[in-house]
Amino acid sequence: MSVPARAENFWKTVREEVTPNKLLASLITSSVVAMMTVVLSVSFVALIFVDPIGGFAGEGTSLMLLTAVIMGIFMAIFSSYPGTIAIPQDRVAPIVALMATLIIHEMRGDDPERIGITVLAAIASSALIVGLCLFFLGAYKLGNIVRFTPYPVIGGFLAGSGWLLLTGSFRVISGQSFSLLSLEDMIASGTIMAWLPCGFFGTITYIAVRYTRHFLTLPGLVFSAVVGFYVWLNLCHYTLADARQFGWILNAPPDSGLTQIQTFPSLLKADWREVVNQYSTVIALLLTSIVSILLNTSALELAADEEIDLNKELRAAGLANLFGGFSGGMIGFQSLSLSSLPLGMGVRSRLVGVFSALICLLLLVFGTGLLGYIPKFILGGILVYNGVSFLTEWGYDAFFRLIREDYFLVVLILAIVAVAGYLQGVAAGIIIATVMFVLKYSSVNVISSMLSGDSHHSSVDRSPLEARLLDNLGGRIHILRLKGFIFFGSANNLLNTIRERQADPNLPRLAYVIMDFHHVSGLDTSGILSMSKLSRLAKKEGFIILAASVPVGIQDSFRKAGLFNEGPGQVRLFRDRDFSIEWCENDILKKELAGDQKEVRSLPQILKDFHPWRVDTGGLLQYMERLEVGKNHYLVLQGDPSHELFFIESGKVKVIVELDNGRAMRIRTMGAGTVVGEIGLYLDQQRLASVVTEEPCTVYRLDAEALHKMEEENPVLASAFHEFMVRVLAERVTQQNRTLRAVVE
What we know:
alpha/beta, five-stranded mixed beta sheet, 27 helices, 12% strand, elongated
């Protein structure tokens, strides 16, 4: 969708949402969001612009507010989720502060004015670079990589974000970083006591919002707290100056304005050599931004219960940073905490982003002096409210909806974030989740089913003698249906399974191992190594390996490993499992019937193997027509009327279905002593498949007219014939049931 089209779609959405109720809810919610944005922005200024560039705090406040304005407008227009709030980010603010410190150190002794401009140039340049990279990542649809992030890792990230919000409230109140290791000292110094009103207000807010879910709940509590604070201040005879001295309210930041903004062209007098030297810090900013955007967006999907287009979010953040960087602004992107705040107030509207941006713009134009009247415990309490929301959802509620392993991972990530840091927690979570996945997947059997050749025959119909032999000797064929990805964990299990089958004294001697790769997606080097070990085992023990339905990529790997060479232990390749089973059956019959099959048996001799006929089977021949046909002769043509069947005395035929695309698929192969075409004859229906000779054949044809004549002239023979056909069909059904049972079990 083009930019004008997106803008038109945005204004259409705005017109739909400009109703009295929605407008009031959006205004109130955006006021809270804007207040939090401004407070966070001011805290970033205090973090970055320290001596000797403290005089640039006004410019810093302006660029932070400008970033908030640009982010709010761009995300309201281009984001795929209507409630997205983007601001200057706390994830990158410490890195930007580090970059400023490094520049100050390298330029020590230089003019503070030039140092400050260089820092501003580095901030703007990093925003431009990050914006460009984010846009191209989204344009090439690389944001979907986060879909591979395990669900518990995202849950742990949310829980960790809750912890960071909770500890952030402590910094708002005391100006110090919270540390579990120094908790005893903070209790002794009374710092924790100063934080308690903040914690109390945040907890009450969480309980109220959770059980009311009304958009006026949070603003009402904030308004009541502000009024209550100033009433208490008056009753205790404290002045505003006393409150500011005791740190109960915010210190008003330096006046800011549009005239103080240093746009990118005005930063050309900076020391660009020092800016370029910060390339490693810019890389850290880029990586942190990408990971944070993807995780924030993915986490917001869970919180909002709505699918969000990650690539659109990357493109939107990229455009906003490009525009903001050229305007001299700082890196900004989607904020998880502030985007979740409207959800807690029951509001989901693009107007929240627009109105909060406009409020920041008004402060940018008219100054930020009003911020000096906001009680700190309210700002910290809102952070506590957000933090407790995430911690409750993923630290308590998740216990009842996640499996124990996943819940353990969430808690572990939370603990690592609390002790070591945010990025360390997420990285450790991904590593642990990957290890857990490998261990779990290794325990999943790559063998979907194991079959034996005595119960799972090929689609070749054979004579009664051959069928009995295969029933007795088919147990030498071991069939493995494989699935999934064969890697170092599952490949060894496959090899051990074959070893156990080969060594089992209670089963027939293993002569053939068929591995069906039809449902295998791939295999790694360990899988190839296991196949090489299997080849050596086959050479030693004297069994044959057959591979069926092998994907082309795996064939190439086998070929490079030398598994398709001639000689003992090598792998024989077949188109599908049925052809490989047929080859094994033919090999068994060839070895067992090497002398017996040289003599061609007559049809009456073959038929006696089926059924102890009570009449002379030779009498059947007078009703049948003997045919000598060559190779590739059509006995039956698909779609033709059905009025005859064929007995195969010698040779082999195949039953094929001719597909719409011109290709033919083999259904069955039938040899000497089998019957073909009987279903069509009895049901008098069109042929559903064709029957073609694979080699020169001798066949006997019995048509419907001859069958009726037999029934009239020799009813005893006709009755025996029908009994014979029932036996043939019953044996086929029995064999199919055995095969189906073997597959299911």
